[in-house]
Amino acid sequence: MPIEMFDLAGADPEVRFSPFCWRIRMAMAHKGLDVRTVPWRFVEKQAISESGQGAVPVILDKGRVLHDSWAIALYLEEAYPDRPKLFSGTQARGLSNILRFWTQTALHPVILKTIINDLFAAIAPGDKAYFRSSREARFGMPLEKFAFSPESGAAVLEKALGPFRAALDSQDFACGSKPAFGDYIVFGAFMWARAVSPIELLDRQDPVYEWRERMLDLHAGLGRNAKLAHGLTV
Ligand SMILES: N[C@@H](CCC(=O)N[C@@H](CS)C(=O)NCC(=O)O)C(=O)O
């Protein structure tokens, strides 16, 4: 039986853009697990009510319902110990947890501000009113005012990526010579942007761009072949 995963979809059900869901899509591919994704929209809270909350990813596996990308990654590691590791040991788990909070505090807000207009354009029509009101309440301003220009977004991101870029000088992946869950955490943020926005977030000379290229090719090009709302490849 494949694992079932509720995965945030846009107006086009094949466009999947949640950074948190991307972490888990990559993690399941890393472990070679069979998955069936179910397109899910922000307003479809009822479909995931068994998880006891309202956000994706949510997975159904072996009769269990799990939510939260970090909890799901820990579960997959424990439930499938003979498959390739997402964390090689407790130290790697601890360090990946730091990457998780760094990604969510240093990268997600900048990326969101940069892509918000494209993101809003890509979401399903039935999600737009909910998205606008929930996000405007969160940001304390209209979406249009919250948005960065593409140039200032890329410049702020370039700076925020400093420590990550420096590490890539001496290693190919965040987790060392091979990718693991820490890489998927950071990569999820880039798939979020790529799926909905044609804005070039990274300079082609940037080592982070090269890392993202390597990540796009992993697992038979799972990221590279993903459907994009804007139909362009960036
Ligand atoms: N901490 C959660 C966050 C999940 C999350 O925020 N997912 C977003 C999609 S990117 C969501 O489903 N939001 C529902 C909403 O805004 O109502 C995780 O790591 O899985």
Q: Rounded to an integer, what's the Rg over CA atoms? A: 17 Å
Strand content: 5-15%
Count the beta strands: 4
Identify the overall geometry: globular
Structural class: alpha+beta
Bound molecules: glutathione
Low-confidence spans: none
Q: What number of domains?
A: 2
**Mean pLDDT, all residues:** 97
N→C terminal distance: 35 Å
Q: Can you name the CATH architecture of the largest domain?
A: Up-down Bundle
* Most strands sheet: 4 strands, mixed
The oligomeric status of these chains comes to single chain
Q: What is CATH's topology name of the largest domain? A: Glutathione S-transferase Yfyf (Class Pi), Chain A, domain 2
The sequence of SSEs as H and E is: EHEEEHHHHHHHH
Helix content: 40-55%
What does this protein structure show overall?
By secondary structure, this protein is of the alpha+beta class. It folds into 2 domains: 3-79, Glutaredoxin (3-Layer(aba) Sandwich); 90-221, Glutathione S-transferase Yfyf (Class Pi), Chain A, domain 2 (Up-down Bundle), CATH 1.20.1050. 51% of the residues lie in helices and 9% in strands. The protein contains 9 helices and 4 strands. It has helices at 19-30, 69-79, 90-122, 128-139, 143-146, 150-160, 162-167, 181-196, 207-221; strands at 3-8, 35-40, 58-61, 64-67. The protein has a 4-stranded mixed β-sheet, with helices on one face. The longest helix has 33 residues, at 90-122. It is globular. The model has no long low-confidence stretch (mean pLDDT 97). The protein binds glutathione (GSH).
